[in-house]
Specification:
This protein is of the alpha/beta class. The chain has two domains: 3-193, Rossmann fold (3-Layer(aba) Sandwich); 218-465, Ribokinase (UDP-N-acetylmuramoyl-L-alanine:D-glutamate ligase, 3-Layer(aba) Sandwich), CATH 3.40.1190. It has 16 helices and 17 strands. The strands form two sheets. An eleven-stranded mixed beta sheet has the order 1-8-17-16-15-14-13-12-9-10-11, sandwiched between helices. Strands 3-2-4-5-6-7 form a six-stranded parallel beta sheet, sandwiched between helices. Helix 8 (258-264) links the parallel strand 10 (251-256) and strand 11 (272-275). The two termini are 12 Å apart. 50% of the residues are buried.
């Protein structure tokens, strides 16, 4: 199940509810230490040096408990209580060039500016060459607001306990949090909290999509129509079509501009390709549509833009709109019960909201709500670090998979194709939110898989593994 994103006050309530069951802090700390050690093992190799920095509080206790669970690693522990006195000791440990530094100096309770001595120690820590694994929150970061208290550890990975804290999802916190992982199984009581922001976890997609019944055929799984590709941007159409194939809809027809038809068609095999003509009013036999990848050329005809607006407002079929076609959409209501999805990156979202990318990033949740409301309560996939999925009301889901190497041209085309391929299938249309969340998670998980096995991968590699990552 997804995990709620909580405030510090809510986290304290959860902890108190746990202690009232008879569970002990000692046992929870022990389990956190084990989870921390598992993450440290993933980040290191046998015989690597791991330096544990342990402060006075429970974060320090968590960090110390990891020590006994780090086989085949050289482990050193430095208890840090007086930063001015302990800075030379830190210097001596850093001289040994640890491969990983476990930061257990401060926890989520920190809400005051750090002294100059602490700032100096944390700044020295950030200069070290070893990667930093933060316990619960990077030391010096306010987990409620996302701001630093004078300085904060720049973690490669933060393993937060129980649930993400809301400040960690703020843009200001991203450089310090690094990759956010959640240790949710550490002996806490079942979470008693509700939140309209949820953290997606891999377990949300166990056995999804369900295995297909044996007595089915391609007609059982829908026919996706893709309108994509124009002069100079034909590759986006190809990538979107390949992404759609990985979702395994029954049929796919790619409608592309006549100027690039002769280039696109030879790259397709199972995907049917048709030159788009003004007389083609769509959707025909299509059970879902994807519109937008690679339609950026000035030569894209006005008739297509008019058709897209009409389809968006009136068609009963599910429609996914991406890239240049986002700018063609009319605001306001759409056909009742029609499934609509838009997939903007921050720059596109800013254009749609007549805002700036900086303003969008400053409050991504609010930007998502505004986009959905403006375009008829559409589902919104607001792409970027920790991609968001939601609409004008209800829960917003924060994606947990993916890495910075998705920042390559064509990544979004593959995602929109895969998403549309899922929403083409009648059975998956019954729970569109799950299908959308799965598409986003699988896309990121595929990138994580590639980064682990093949550094230097490209987007053509991405659609080769997409759909094959299992929770």
């Amino acid at each position: 199940m997804s995990v709620p994103v909580v405030s510090i006050g809510q986290m304290r309530e959860w902890e108190q509810a746990t202690w009232e069951t008879g569970q002990t802090e000692t046992e929870v700390i022990r389990q956190v230490g084990q989870c921390l050690a598992q993450e440290a093992l993933r980040l290191t190799h046998p015989d690597d040096l791991v330096l544990i920095l342990a402060g006075k509080g429970h974060n320090g206790d968590d960090a110390r408990c990891a020590r006994e669970h780090l086989p085949e690693r050289r482990v050193e522990v430095l208890d840090v209580t007086e930063p001015g006195r302990d800075l030379p000791k830190l210097e001596a440990h850093l001289a040994s060039r640890p491969a990983l530094i476990i930061d257990g100096l401060f926890g989520v309770g920190l809400n005051r500016p750090l002294s100059r001595a602490w700032v100096q120690l944390i700044e020295r820590l950030n200069q070290a060459q070893g990667r930093i694994l933060a316990v619960d929150v990077p030391s010096g970061l306010n987990a409620e607001t996302g701001e630093t208290q004078g300085a904060a550890a720049r973690a490669a990975v933060t393993l937060t306990v129980g649930a993400p804290k809301k400040g960690m999802l703020c843009e200001a916190a991203w450089p310090f949090v690094g990759r956010l992982e959640v240790a949710s199984e550490v002996g806490l009581a079942p979470c008693p909290l509700a939140s309209d922001v949820q953290w997606t976890v891999a377990e949300d997609f166990g056995n999804y999509p369900l295995p297909r019944p044996v007595a089915t055929h391609k007609g059982s799984y829908g026919h996706l129509g893709i309108i994509a590709g124009s002069l100079g941007y034909h590759g986006a159409a190809v990538l979107a079509a390949h992404g759609a194939q990985r979702a395994q809809p029954g049929l796919i027809t790619l409608h592309t501009m006549e100027t690039v038809y002769s280039v696109v068609a030879p790259q397709m095999q199972a995907v049917m390709v048709s030159p788009w003509q003004a007389a083609n009013k769509m959707p025909g036999a299509h059970t879902a549509l994807l519109i937008g990848p690679g339609l950026a050329a000035a030569s894209v005809v006005d008739e297509l833009k008019v058709l897209v607006r009409q389809l968006w407002q009136e068609s009963p079929q599910p429609i996914v709109v991406d890239a240049s076609a986002l700018d063609w959409l009319p605001s306001g209501a759409v056909s009742k019960a029609a499934l609509r999805v838009i997939t903007p990156h921050p720059g596109e979202a800013a254009r749609l909201l007549r805002s700036t990318a900086k303003q969008v990033q400053a409050n991504r949740f609010d930007a998502l709500r505004q986009l959905s409301q403006r375009f008829g309560d559409t589902w919104v996939v607001l792409k970027g670090h920790q991609t968001l999925v939601g609409r004008s009301s209800g829960e917003i889901f924060v994606n947990s998979s993916g890495n910075p190497y998705l920042a390559q041209g064509g990544s979004g085309d593959v995602l929109s194709g895969f998403l549309a391929g899922l929403l083409t299938q009648p059975e998956l249309q019954e729970d569109p939110l799950k299908a959308i969340r799965y598409a986003v998670w699988e896309h990121g998980a595929a990138a994580d898989h590639l980064q682990a096995i093949r550094p230097g991968w490209v987007i053509e590699d991405l659609h080769e593994v997409l759909g094959g990552i299992r929770a």
